[in-house]
Write a structure and sequence with these properties.
Layout (H helix, E strand, L loop, with lengths): L9 H13 L2 H8 L3 H15 L4 E3 L4 E3 L1 H27 L3 E6 L1 H8 L3 H7 L4 E6 L17 E7 L7 E6 L1 E3 L2 H6 L4 H7 L2 E3 L5 H9 L11 E2 L4 H8 L4 E4 L5 H5 L12 E9 L7 H26 L13 H9 L1
Parallel strand pairs: 3-4, 3-5, 8-9, 8-10
Antiparallel strand pairs: 1-2, 5-11, 6-11, 7-10
């Protein structure tokens, strides 16, 4: 059978497919990491090859011609399938495990323990991507192209993928607390509040549960990860709401201090989500078992820290509304 297929150049097809799908030369160029000029040139090559225009270019928008629309409708699924098959072939011959991890969880918890995990999987290559993925519910964490997703999401009841609940507590330097006679109310009222998000949600929730007269939950500095407020708190720039799992070393080394016997639930949790039919079940199970054992050890470590007599009590009563909510939960 004659298989002398007549096919256009692959680079030109990729440039056209991205442009048609994104409806933008600039977005296509950004996706393929080339210039807009290179995109236009490749599409011109493709149009010359077909002998027909594929795009109608106007000053305001980009439109596909009939020929361009026909090509686009078939080309995108074909390239998707080719990419999927290629990745399967590549990864079938690699001991590769792909992780998507919340940045703060990665930097402050996973990375310091990475050596211990690698000893359990000496021939496995870990490919770790750090990215903050906002998730109002755990199902938002179902993501393609990863074997394990570790992210923070608003908690749902009875979810087997939950690693642990998130707890957020005020944290500042011992010197800052001493400046206000070890009175946490004064620290929170008079210091810069450090926020991990631009919506002020964490401090709003905490101050609703533990009211401090004169404290403005929408004042202070905002960032986009939990790690940044912790870093600034260590430098003495204010008070952060920190997850105790992420500041254990700072507490043990005297860089930060927290209120005694104070571990309020934030309503969020850290999840480990895997594909429904993972190809790397054995490696995933190793990570899963290791994570749970490490978390159990750290829970005991945190409990010992927050009950230390070297800490000062919060001295702020929980609001009646929040007590009622907790009792009815």
């Amino acid at each position: 059978m004659n298989r002398n297929r007549k096919l256009p150049p692959l680079h030109a097809l990729k440039a056209f497919e991205a442009t048609a799908r994104r409806q933008s030369f600039s977005l296509a160029a950004e996706e393929l990491n080339v210039t807009q000029g290179a995109i236009s040139k490749q599409i011109k090559v493709l149009e010359d090859w077909y002998g027909a225009p594929l795009l109608q270019r106007t000053t305001k928008q980009l439109k596909l011609t009939e020929e361009g629309r026909t090509l686009s409708e078939h080309l995108t699924p074909m390239l998707d399938e080719l990419s999927f098959i290629s990745m399967n072939i590549l990864e079938r011959h690699q001991n590769l495990l792909r992780l998507l991890v919340n940045p703060t969880l990665a930097v402050r918890w996973l990375f310091p323990r990475l050596g211990a995990l690698q000893k359990l999987m000496p021939v496995t290559q870990l490919r770790i991507t750090t990215k903050w993925t906002p998730a109002e519910k755990r199902s938002d964490l179902e993501m393609e192209n990863f074997d394990i997703v570790m992210q923070c999401a608003r908690r749902q009841e009875d979810d087997p993928n939950l690693l642990r609940e998130e707890q957020l507590i005020p944290a500042c330097t011992p010197a800052l607390l001493a400046q206000y006679n070890h009175d946490w109310r004064q620290v929170i009222r008079n210091s810069t509040l450090l926020h991990p998000t631009e919506d002020f949600e964490d401090w709003q929730r905490w101050l609703k549960q533990y009211p401090v007269d004169g404290a403005d939950p929408e004042s202070g500095l905002t960032f986009d990860t939990l790690d940044m407020p912790i870093t600034l708190a260590v430098q003495g720039h204010g008070v952060a709401l920190a997850d105790p799992f992420f500041i254990m070393n700072e507490l043990e080394n005297g860089l930060l201090t927290i209120p005694r016997n104070h571990l309020p639930d934030s309503g969020w949790g850290y999840y480990m989500v895997t594909p429904a039919n993972p190809r790397r079940r054995e490696m995933i199970d190793i990570v899963y078992d290791w994570m749970h054992e490490e978390i159990k050890k750290d829970m005991r470590r945190v409990q010992a820290m927050v009950t230390s007599t070297n800490l000062y009590p919060l001295g702020i009563e929980e609001s009646g509304y929040e007590r009622q909510q907790s009792a009815s939960a």
